[in-house]
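Pipeline run #58 for the internal structure catalog. This entry was flagged by the ingest filter as a single-chain record with no existing model, so it goes straight to prediction. Upstream metadata was stripped on purpose; only the residue string is passed forward. Reviewer on rotation: M.T. Logging verbosity set to normal.
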Amino acid sequence: MAEERYEGLNLTPPAEGFELYRHKRAGNTATRGWSGLYWARRNEAGDYEIRSILKEGEGYSVTGGIFPKKGFEEHYERANL
């Protein structure tokens, strides 16, 4: 089922320094069409800038804003796909 969740996603980083992160409870949700994945990179303050994951052939990754380090690391972990 996890493979289906990520099928067709563009897993090429949107810019330098971005790494793939996964919501820790993504596998426990029944939300249809949500991969639980985001691109994230640390900023100078140590917080995380996040961007959306797109499907292959879609436009550009969209910024999701800045998440404080503590909250982000509480809910997300590096993804090893």
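catalog note: The CA atoms of residues 8 and 41 lie 23 Å apart.
catalog note: The longest strand covers residues 37-42.
status: ready for reviewer M.T.
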